[in-house]
Design brief:
Number of strands: 7
Order of helices and strands: HEEEEEEEH
Distance between the termini: 76 Å
CATH topology of the largest domain: Immunoglobulin-like
Largest sheet: 4 strands, antiparallel
Shape: elongated
CATH architecture of the largest domain: Sandwich
Length: about 160
C-alpha cells in the first residue's frame, strides 16, 4: 500500500485534519463490495444533494438509514416473508451496507422509497455564526491615540 505525506498541505491549512483520514478510507475500500447496490449522487443546487440507490426488492422495513457525525450509513437486509421456490432468481436479495462520508454541516433532510429507488435528500446548512460576515473597522480619534501612546511612555497629559 502506498503512503502519502500530507504535511505540505497543513502548512497553510487549518481544520483539514480529517482530509488524510477520508483519503485513506477511500483508498482502502474493497471494490467488490462497492458495486451493490448501484447508486448516483446528484448535486441539485449549491447546497443540496441527493443520493439515489437502486434497491429493487427491498421494502421500507428492510432498509435502515443512520446519520451520525459526518457519516451516513445505509443498510439493507430482506427479511423473508414467505418461503418461495424460485426457478430463476435474478433480483438480488443480498444484504448490503453502504457508507458515505459527509462534509461538515451536511444534514439528511429525508428519504423516500418509490419504484425500487431509495432517494436520500441532503442539504448543507451552515450555522449563522459560521457564515462569512463583514467586520467593520472602528476609528479612534487622534486625541485618544495620543493619550494611549503618552500613557505607555509615562508622560503626563495636560488637563483640558
Amino acid at each position: 500500500m502506498t503512503t502519502y505525506d500530507f504535511t505540505p498541505l497543513f502548512r497553510s491549512s487549518i481544520g483539514f485534519d480529517r482530509l488524510p483520514l477520508l483519503l485513506s478510507h477511500a483508498l482502502q475500500l474493497d471494490e467488490s463490495n462497492t458495486s451493490y447496490p448501484p447508486y448516483n449522487i446528484d448535486k441539485r443546487s449549491e447546497d443540496e444533494y441527493r443520493i439515489v440507490m437502486a434497491v429493487a426488492g427491498f421494502g421500507k422495513e428492510d432498509i435502515e438509514i443512520v446519520s451520525e457525525q459526518n457519516k451516513l450509513t445505509v443498510r439493507g437486509e430482506i427479511k423473508e416473508r414467505e418461503e418461495k421456490t424460485y426457478l430463476h432468481r435474478g433480483i438480488a436479495a443480498r444484504s448490503f451496507q453502504r457508507q458515505f462520508d459527509l462534509a461538515d454541516f451536511v444534514k439528511v433532510n429525508g428519504a423516500e422509497l418509490k419504484d425500487g429507488l431509495l432517494v436520500i435528500s441532503l442539504k448543507r446548512e451552515i450555522p449563522e455564526e459560521m457564515k462569512p460576515r463583514r467586520i467593520e473597522i472602528g476609528m479612534s480619534s487622534p486625541s485618544q491615540l495620543e493619550t494611549k501612546a503618552a500613557n505607555k511612555r509615562g508622560e503626563k497629559q495636560p488637563a483640558g
